[in-house]
């Protein structure tokens, strides 16, 4: 039997530690949240080099609250952002027909990292009937300086693919993809840096994306939590704040001792 890669073991241990250190009883984790009884869907979109597993924890959390979820898996490193927007939209429509939703239904979106950009792109290009609210988790709305520092390396393209080059701080790389935000969008930023490359970033950051880059004109609310980038969707506060925004249109700004 082959040994598991050390990096894989470290990743699993880190996720376990996050879950153990931030978890509590379901009653406490859901404090102030209500059970959803009507027809509300949440589309979950992971980030670059991720897969649907990275959104599985927050998906489970939302299901416990009664939301119907669609967790999209897509080849994030094979295509440009432009192409991924079309591809993910088609995948969503295979799961639920967005054009024939009932009038009392709501379609929410939760996007981690690049998934938040794809969400904005989908809403800009394909008007969503009965659009609810949108939550971004550590999304680089203005790119990441780290991507810009490494984009000239051949290895960068091999690892991150065409979309990786569109995640630099050059807004022209994303020109024409997004229309002004005229819907309720909440952006969560992290300030827990466990990535040495985060030293390249200015100000508070999650190790990959600066807090400032998570802000976007037209957003309804913005909030900072203690979360690192890659594990963002696994943090209990990230899950709680996501559900809180979906239900209220703003984040919980008080001290969340209920989660400790």
Summarize the structure.
The protein has 260 residues and is α/β, with parallel strands linked by helices. It has helices at 6-22, 26-29, 56-64, 81-95, 114-125, 145-150, 154-164, 236-248, and strands at residues 40-45, 68-72, 106-112, 131-137, 184-190, 221-225.
Overview of this protein structure:
The protein is of the alpha/beta class. Helices cover 33% and strands 14% of the residues. It contains eight helices and six strands, in the order ααβαβαβαβααββα. The protein has a six-stranded parallel beta sheet, with helices on both faces. Helix 5 links the parallel strand 3 and strand 4. The N and C termini lie far apart (39 Å).
Produce the secondary structure layout.
Layout lengths: L5 H17 L3 H4 L10 E6 L10 H9 L3 E5 L8 H15 L10 E7 L1 H12 L5 E7 L7 H6 L3 H11 L19 E7 L30 E5 L10 H13 L12
Parallel strand pairs: 1-2, 1-3, 3-4, 4-5, 5-6
Main sheet specs: 6 strands, parallel
Query: For the residues shown, what is the average pLDDT?
Result: 88
- Percent of residues in helices comes to 25-40%
Total number of helices: 8
Kindly provide the radius of gyration, computed on alpha-carbon positions and rounded to a whole number of angstroms.
18 Å
Number of domains: 1
Helix and strand element order: HHEHEHEHEHHEEH
The CATH architecture assignment turns out to be: 3-Layer(aba) Sandwich
Query: How many runs of DSSP E, i.e. beta strands?
Result: 6
Gross geometry: globular
| CATH homologous superfamily (4th level) name | Alpha/Beta hydrolase fold, catalytic domain
Distance between the termini: 39 Å
By CATH reckoning, the class would read: Alpha Beta
Q: Please identify the structural class as seen in this structure.
A: alpha/beta
Poorly predicted runs: 6-10, 18-26
The CATH topology: Rossmann fold
Strand content: 5-15%
How do the strands of the widest beta sheet line up side by side? 2-1-3-4-5-6
């Amino acid at each position: 039997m082959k040994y598991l890669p050390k990096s894989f073991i470290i990743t699993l241990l880190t996720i376990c530690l996050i879950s153990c250190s931030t978890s509590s009883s379901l009653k406490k984790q859901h404090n102030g949240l209500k059970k959803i009884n009507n027809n509300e869907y949440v589309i979950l979109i992971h980030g670059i080099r991720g897969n649907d597993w990275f959104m599985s924890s927050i998906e489970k959390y939302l299901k416990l609250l009664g939301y119907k979820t669609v967790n999209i898996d897509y080849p994030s490193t094979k295509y440009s952002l432009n192409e991924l927007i079309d591809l993910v939209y088609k995948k969503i429509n295979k799961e639920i027909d967005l054009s024939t939703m009932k009038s009392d239904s709501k379609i929410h979106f939760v996007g981690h990292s690049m998934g938040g950009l794809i969400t904005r792109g989908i809403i800009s290009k394909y008007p969503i009937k009965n659009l609810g609210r949108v939550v971004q988790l550590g999304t680089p709305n203005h790119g990441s300086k780290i991507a810009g520092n490494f984009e000239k390396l051949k290895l960068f393209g091999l690892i991150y693919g065409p979309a990786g080059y569109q995640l630099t701080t050059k807004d022209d790389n994303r020109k024409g993809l997004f229309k002004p935000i005229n819907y309720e969008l909440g952006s969560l930023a992290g300030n827990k840096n466990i990535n040495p490359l985060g030293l390249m970033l200015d100000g508070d950051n999650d190790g990959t994306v600066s807090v400032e880059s998570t802000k976007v004109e037209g957003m309804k609310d913005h909030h900072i939590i203690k979360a690192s980038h890659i594990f963002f969707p696994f943090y209990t506060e990230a899950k709680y704040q996501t559900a809180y925004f979906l239900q209220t249109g703003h984040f919980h700004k008080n001290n969340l001792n209920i989660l400790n």
